């Protein structure tokens, strides 16, 4: 009886852990040239600078700071007030290649291509549907990109 209870508890805890990681909190950067620091404070060195809308996964919160991870796996700390819950995505494929992803007029390869984007281009997320993301670039370009080609929320 105790063995069955222990197995049941472990199973429930595993499901909770998987669900929690699948629902990881995401944020996007507010402002341009926002410093990603090596620790939670301005006395720590700057590792990277991010532009507006850059999507990040929150790993930890400490006071007014959040530890985040970007789409390439780089981690560091951002001042929490320089983040928002506004959905953004970034092109995650074709690194170091002269290839672009297609931006289409609708959520399928049957729709015409209205633009293209390189690795690392950031878009605001409008909505997601059936494995596609409706996105908009700061330039005004708007369309649909296959979700598997993007990282973010």
Keywords:
single chain; 153 residues; mainly beta; SH3 type barrels; elongated; disordered N terminus
Alpha-beta classification? mainly beta
Q: Extract low-pLDDT stretches.
A: 3-22
Rg value: 19 Å
Number of strands: 14
> Which architecture name of the largest domain does CATH use?
Roll
Q: H/E element string?
A: HEEEEEEEEEEEEEE
Structure description:
By secondary structure, the protein is mainly beta. The chain has 2 domains: 62 residues, SH3 type barrels; 64 residues, Roll (SH3 type barrels), CATH 2.30.30.40. The strands form 4 sheets. Strands 6-5-4-1-7 form a 5-stranded antiparallel sheet, with no helix packed on it. Strands 13-12-11-8-14 form a 5-stranded antiparallel sheet, with no helix packed on it. Strands 2-3 form a two-stranded antiparallel sheet. A hairpin with a 5-residue loop joins strand 12 and strand 13.
């Amino acid at each position: 009886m105790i063995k069955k209870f222990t197995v049941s508890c472990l199973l429930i805890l595993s499901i909770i852990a998987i669900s929690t990681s699948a629902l990881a909190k995401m944020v996007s950067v507010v402002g341009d040239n926002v410093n990603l620091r090596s620790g939670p404070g301005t006395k720590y060195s700057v590792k990277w600078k991010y532009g507006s809308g850059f999507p990040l996964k929150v790993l930890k919160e400490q006071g007014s700071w959040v530890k985040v991870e970007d789409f390439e796996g780089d981690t560091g700390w951002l001042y929490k007030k320089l983040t928002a819950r506004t959905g953004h995505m970034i092109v995650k494929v074709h690194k170091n290649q002269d290839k672009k992803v297609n931006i289409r007029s609708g959520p399928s390869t049957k729709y015409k291509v209205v633009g293209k984007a390189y690795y690392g281009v950031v878009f605001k997320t409008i909505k997601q549907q059936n494995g596609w993301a409706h996105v908009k670039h700061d330039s005004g370009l708007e369309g649909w990109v296959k979700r598997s080609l993007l990282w973010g929320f």
